[in-house]
Each structure stands twice: as C-alpha cells, then as structure tokens.
Amino acid sequence: MAWTLSGSREKMLHGIARRGDEHEVSIKTKPSKKIFLHLLDRTRVKKIIMSHGIARTVPHSVFKGLRHAGVEVKIIRLHAGRPRVHDDAKREKLLSAAAKGMPLDAALKKFGVSRRSYFYWKRKK
C-alpha cells in the first residue's frame, strides 16, 4: 500500500522524514526537485505513483534521474469532471446490438440510453 505525499512542501518534507522505510509513495501535490531529492536520499522508495496532470509538471531530467536510481514511476489517468451515467461496457453492448440489426428503439429502451447519447457514441466511435 502506497503512502500519500500531499500538502505544502514543508508538510511533504516532514512526511518524507517520518516514512523513511516505505517502498511506494503516491504524490498528490506538485513536487519540486527538492522533494524528489529528499525521496531518493532519505527513503527506500522504489515506486512513485502520480496523476498525469502532476507528471506533466515534472521535468524530464527528474524522470531520467529516477529511472537511473531504479525507481519505477507509474502515471495514472484520472477522470475529472461530471461522473458518467453509462459505463463503457453498456455503450459497447448497445452499439453492438444496434449493429447486429436490433431495432434502435428497442435497444435504447433495453439499455436505458437516450437517442442523443446513442448517436453521440456512434459518431465518436
């Protein structure tokens, strides 16, 4: 289980000092180069997890240094914004049923999807 590193830089540095023997860390706040230096110098971290948005703010030289130090960096994509009403599986099943010849009105009623959503998904695919 990864421990979370977030908050102000001072809070992050304090967290690094307390958790020196952890092997996995999840970064939730934009870190500075100093944070990464402290992570490498004062902990046994072998895996760093961060969102795509945070990773975009980290210089390539830092990633190169982490790889050189043997630290795995995992970048995850988070879905921001309004929660989805229909999942990808439902969308695929509906599009597949309609493509196989099921009457559109029956398919929409069966899956509980609006006509507008169906045509949006169809156009997007």
List keywords for this structure.
single chain; four-stranded parallel sheet; 125 residues; 2 domains; alpha/beta
- What is the β-strand count? 4
Tell me the fraction of residues in β-strands, as a range.
Answer: 5-15%
From the alpha carbons, calculate the radius of gyration and give it in angstroms.
22 Å
Question: How do the strands line up in the largest sheet?
Answer: 1-2-3-4
Number of helices: 7
* Weakly predicted, low-confidence segments: none
Fraction of residues in H or I helices: 40-55%
Look at the structure and give the mean pLDDT.
90
Q: What is the approximate shape?
A: elongated
Termini gap: 37 Å
Number of domains: 2
Structural category is alpha/beta
> Which sheet architecture does the biggest sheet show?
4 strands, parallel
Secondary-structure element string: EHEHEHHEHHH
Explain what you see.
The protein is an alpha/beta fold. The chain folds into 2 domains: 3-76; 88-124. Helix content is 50%, strand content 14%. It is built from 7 helices and 4 strands. The chain has helices at 9-18, 33-42, 52-55, 60-68, 88-99, 104-111, 115-124; strands at 3-5, 24-27, 47-51, 72-76. It has a 4-stranded parallel β-sheet with strand order 1-2-3-4. Strand 2 (24-27), helix 2 (33-42) and strand 3 (47-51) form a beta-alpha-beta unit. Helix 1 packs parallel to helix 2. The longest helix has 12 residues, at 88-99. It is elongated, with a radius of gyration of 22 Å. 13% of the residues are buried. The model has no long low-confidence stretch (mean pLDDT 90).
What is the compact description of this entry?
Helices cover 50% and strands 14% of the residues. With 125 residues, the chain is of the alpha/beta class. Helix 1 (9-18) runs parallel beside helix 2 and helix 5 (88-99) packs antiparallel against helix 6 (104-111).
